[in-house]
Amino acid sequence: MAVLHTPDFFVIRDREAGWEEWKTEEELRRLAERNPNRYCAGAEGRWRCPPGADYAERLGLYYRVRSSAEIEWVYQRNIQFLEDYLRVDSPAISTVSRESAVAHVSATHGLPLEDLLRLNTVSPDDIFAMIAANILYVDLRAAPLAEPSQVKVFTTSEVASRTKRDSARKLDMFSWGAVHCGSTLTWDCRIWKVVNIGEASVGLLSEDQRLTELPVAAFQSLIRQGRIEVALRNLEHVSDSAVHQQISRASERDLQVANHRASHISRHLDFGTLPAETDVPARTFYRWLACYRSAEASCGSGFVGLLPKHSQRGNYTPKLPEASQRLMEEFIDLDYETLKQKTKYASWAGLKAACEKQGIQVPSYKTFCVASTRRPTFNQTLKRKGRRAAYQVETFYWDLDQKTPRHGDRPLEIAHLDHTELDIELISQSGQALGRPWMTLLTDAFSRRILAFYITFDAPSYRSCMMVLRECVRRLGRFPQSLVVDGGPEFGSTYFETLLARYECTKKTRPPAKARFGSVCERLFGTANTHFVHNLLGNTQITRNVRQVTKSVDPKKHAIWPLAGLYDRMCEYLYDIYDTIQHPALGLSPREAYASGLAAAGQRPQRLIAYDQDFLIWTLPTTSKGTAKVSPGRGVKLNHFFYWSDALRDPAIEQQQVPVRYDPFDAGIAYAYVGKRWVQCISEHYSSLRGKSERELMLATTELRRRAQQHAGQFTVTAKKLADFLASVESEETLRAQRLQDREAKSVLTIIEGGLANPDRRDMTLKEAGDIDQQDVPDAVNLGIMPRTAASAELRVFEEY
What we know:
Blueprint: E1 9-12, E2 17-23, H1 25-34, E3 40-41, E4 47-48, H2 50-57, E5 62-67, H3 73-81, H4 83-86, H5 95-107, E6 111-112, H6 113-117, H7 124-132, E7 152-153, H8 157-177, E8 184-187, E9 190-197, E10 201-206, E11 211-215, H9 216-224, E12 228-230, H10 236-249, H11 252-271, H12 282-299, H13 322-336, H14 344-358, H15 365-373, H16 377-385, H17 387-391, E13 414-421, E14 426-427, E15 433-435, E16 438-444, E17 450-456, H18 462-476, E18 482-485, H19 494-502, E19 506-509, H20 519-531, H21 555-558, H22 563-577, H23 590-601, H24 613-618, E20 627-629, E21 636-638, E22 641-644, E23 657-663, E24 666-674, E25 677-683, H25 686-689, H26 694-709, H27 719-727, H28 732-753, H29 766-770, H30 776-782, H31 788-800
Parallel strand pairs: 2-5, 13-18, 18-19
Antiparallel strand pairs: 1-2, 3-4, 6-7, 8-9, 8-12, 9-10, 10-11, 13-16, 14-15, 16-17, 20-23, 21-22, 22-25, 23-24, 24-25
Helix pairs in contact: 13-14, 22-28, 26-28, 30-31
């Protein structure tokens, strides 16, 4: 049988190259049982794929199966922690910091990293940069850097090896000093007792009373290798575990009865006679005493013999014949646990008919219900309702042996990005209902801090993703290291992935229909709705019970919030209120967790991103081709329209392909990369396209095509037709709703880019205020873009400037 197979990686090494297939150790064990011809365990526990190895050998390559058991989790975690410093070829470390750190580490070999981070003369960024550059040595496989108390810092690897050997020698001396005559040792899974320690040999006595003598050097070598261990506890541990097991199974009532009996037994053991004042019959008392002594002789604790054995009373053997039990289990498995979702009674009726036909005893309906209830809930729900319903009752994944922290070791290491439709109806500035908005949220997993958010009426798309990442850089000046998203199509956009790749951000897609993987973001959606949105007029809580909605309580009738007003208040709630409230999972507020995390893990200035024109260009989408040809006299063509700039007059670039980008919120302008810089280009139909969003153009194109389908013949959407349609009265009703939504969205963009209602909170500088014309502020109020309170604040800042 031939199998088509694509391995995970093709690896090119210094002296060899080949394919590598990575799987978890558990998955490989399952595959080895199912397909032993393809996967088998080789020498030293390494996995092999004989067909793959044979195929690769014919080509002079190799094929290896790699297991998760080979991953050094501490090393991987440390490399990820130092990634920002490892990417810098020559870190800028001041001479004072370098000399101070090396002096402290030289004075104390194996200085804990925690003590080194406390120095006021050296910043954490310089310390981690020196570790990444091997100026200071840390064994990255020994302990995670995120736990500095466990990390030892040395000047060089040679000093670390010498210190480790000295520590091992001291440990050998300690182990040898702990051995004395009468000590109990374990050697090769057997128990030995030290009977003699001489100058040349050590005498050991085995469990079967055989004497063995070992030279002192050989004995010390076995201790050093860990093959001989000093037993810290003797064989009584086995009996102790049995005692604890029996006591842990006893109920509170059983322990009360045992304590009552023990009080009588203790008085008898002290005085040697039966207490005269007791009302316990002598026969009963001596039975207790016999049980006490029997348990003391067998397991070393007489108290266990006084425990009543109520749970062992009664006949627990099943009364139903084996044939009936087997048929009942078969009906539960093949008839009840199916996608038909039969009721228990209907399935039991079929079982009854089958039992009567075979002439065996019929299980009662109650017995059938009890047996079906005892089946595993997850498996039963999976077979009856599918995997999504079963996910609700699936067992949580308890990671007892933590390999990497699920929320990262520091702020901005892992961020979650997701969308939700807010539970509120909004209106335009003129009072027309516009529907419910969508909120895109970017949150930090480590500190639970809201990094950025964006609100729009458009359904989730790459535009929302671009805008929220743009807002994150505007506020914090940096990108997260890893971004966790779901399987939505907007996260697979070429523009979105190009932006992440440009700024070295790793995208991780969580499993489908597994909401717990995004619990950080999902929980914040619920918090924002319950703590803020549900307290506003126009919230849609009542629409969950549609039959209770009347005209008097319809949220659309009570909506009073425009998009800009909601965005401004949401900024205040998420960036000021939520950010300063203590989080129950952290024990401190998200802002405090973020600040303390950066102080411990370093500010990492090399990750800072300037919020300038170059960055904004990267957040704009491009065409499917990515480039456009420069037509002489007309410019570049994007999405049916020509765009022109004087920079395109250069004869050297005419008829050449140049990189292009367009603004999804303003179809009147585009950008072309000419002369090693991005230049702004104006559309040939600028008057018609100015301020029109990409979504409005898409709706207009769809409307034109729909109308053309009503007529015979071929119809092509040209730039002139589309521009004329946008300017005509005929399109007013079709695009009116989208234009109102875009107008509200532009008010949000105005707030983000500078028209802020609270300049102090969102860092509006005096330089930015100087760019505002005083005459423009009243105009903005008249247009309804800016609240009058915001306009007053703008005027105050302008006057101060």
